[in-house]
Amino acid sequence: MASFIRILFAIFLPPVGVFLTVGLGKSFWINILLTLLGFIPGIVHAVWVIAKNSDK
Questions:
Q1: Which 3 state secondary structure label does DSSP give 53?
Q2: Looking at residue 54, what DSSP letter applies?
């Protein structure tokens, strides 16, 4: 259920989804940059980070 909520955040507010998954690490700041450059790259990166860290 937590992964579902993170994915929803990743779609609507990508940096929040990444923050809930990995905190204020390098991936969070990369996602902020990607979201500012274009919303779709931010979403793709957020979903990728959440999927990569879902087994942890």
A1: coil
A2: T
Q: Can you tell me the distance from the alpha carbon of 16 to that of 29, in angstroms, rounded to the nearest whole number?
A: 11
* pLDDT tens-digit map of 23-49: 999 999 999 999 999 999 999 999 999
16: left (phi over 0), alpha (psi -120 to 50) or beta: alpha
The answer to whether 16 and 9 are in contact (CB under 8 A) is yes
Residues 6+ apart with CB under 8 A from 39: 14
Whether 31 and 38 have beta carbons less than 8 Å apart is answered as: no
Mean pLDDT of all residues belonging to the chain: 92
